[in-house]
Design goal:
This protein has 141 residues and is mainly α. Helix content is 47%, strand content 0%. Helix 1 runs antiparallel to helix 2, helix 2 packs across helix 7 and helix 5 runs antiparallel to helix 6. The longest helix is centred in the middle third of the chain and has 14 residues.
């Protein structure tokens, strides 16, 4: 996931950024971008640094990925899974982070605070143009 975001960031024109996003479109990527850019999606994970141990094993050996874990993300936003206690929700978030490659964990930490554009040159306008099928707003239960 972070590779796609880096590739988008490197594009100099809005049209090229849109093209790259469309080329690598997945439900996982869209859900992360929705969490980051949709104002009606509210994170239930406390803002700021997350205390977790970075998974420093070599790439491809012992990591999961956001492509595999994205279906769990509903647990961390308002309206997702109200049955979870805050402690259980935060523990699950840390477990996912610890299973991800450090760059993917960074993406998830930025997204939960809606700060993806601090590291990657991606805007709401680019995402909305790349994915006209996304319905913005009305989330968050």
């Amino acid at each position: 996931m972070h590779e796609i975001l880096e590739l988008v960031s490197k594009q100099r024109s809005k049209a090229k950024k849109v093209e790259v996003l469309q080329e690598y479109a997945t439900d996982a990527l869209k859900s992360i971008l929705i969490w980051n850019f949709d104002d009606t999606v509210h994170s239930l994970i406390p803002e700021g640094d997350v205390p977790y141990e970075r998974n420093e094993v070599p790439v491809g050996t012992d990591h999961t990925s956001l492509r595999r874990e994205w279906k769990q993300l509903y647990n961390f936003v308002q309206g997702g899974n109200a049955k979870l206690s805050s402690l259980r929700r935060e523990t699950m978030f840390i477990q996912i982070l610890e299973g991800l490659h450090p760059d993917e964990a960074d993406v998830l930490c930025l997204v939960k605070d809606k700060r993806l554009n601090e590291k990657y040159k991606i805007t709401y306008d680019v995402v909305a143009q790349a994915y006209p099928d996304i319905e913005w707003g009305g989330r968050g239960g």
